[in-house]
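Journal club side-thread
Mid-discussion, someone asked how the predicted structure for our own chain would compare to the paper's figures. Pasting it here so we can look after the session.
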Amino acid sequence: MKIGYIGLGKMGSNMVERLLEKGHEIVVYDPKEEALSRAKEAGAIVAKGIVEMKELITAPRLIWVMVPHNIVDNVLGELEEVLEKGDVVVDGGNSPYTQSMERAKKFKNREIHFLDAGVSGGPNGARNGACVMVGGEEEVYKKNEKLFKDISARDAYAYMGKSGAGHFVKMVHNGIEYGMMQAIAEGFDVLKCSGFGLNLKDVAHIYNQQSVITSRLVGWMEKGFEKHGNDLEGITGSAVGTGEALWTLEAAQKYGVQAQVIQDAVNARTASQKKPSFQGQIISVLRNQFGGHEAKEKE
């Protein structure tokens, strides 16, 4: 396929390189010259803007958007002005599912197709195979299924349902992620304070050897202790959140569902902003391991 790709951050750049290796022809655009240079070196075609991107791709076009949710509307607005009947837009970022539903309606009025794709796996997943959850018109999904297969790990992509479903499933995934990370943080805080002088890297290692809590998160925790030591020296204890868990809580309230664990996890991150803690350090390390987020204390 020849596709357009807008947004070359940590996720976007890696995904473009994966798609190029899979034999796709990619036309890229990003306002940052450094990102464009990296993509060009990998074999992508560089567009100077969205209008030129449209001209470089034969209709019907597919444009993948991988930008922060707070600027998605700006990008989609530009696309709405230049794309044509039968073209496809895929929003691969963490957009609120209700906004994805509204965006799909707007594009449908222009006879342009819109798919919402929740992507999990962080920068490493984007490069080596992500987990992808897609919402929108099933016929459009099936027509472009090879693309989703190529960006994903084995058996790690699926059609979730009508517009908004892909981002809804990814949103809840992020809420669950908050809760799991908080449980790990609390457990290792108890271990550290126990008085047994435990080597927390060794504990994380044994937990990850076919125990009930064996997981990628526990594996990343082991790597974090190996890199930063038992006290996670130099790591910020103020754990940052990106907002997706709050969207999950809003949905839980809307549907009358109890979500106490996710709520407590959000509260813990908020509290760590004023009162940094070892639990905050653990969350920071995990976010750094899987998402490449900054974890060091600022000097």
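Post-session note: The radius of gyration is 21 Å.
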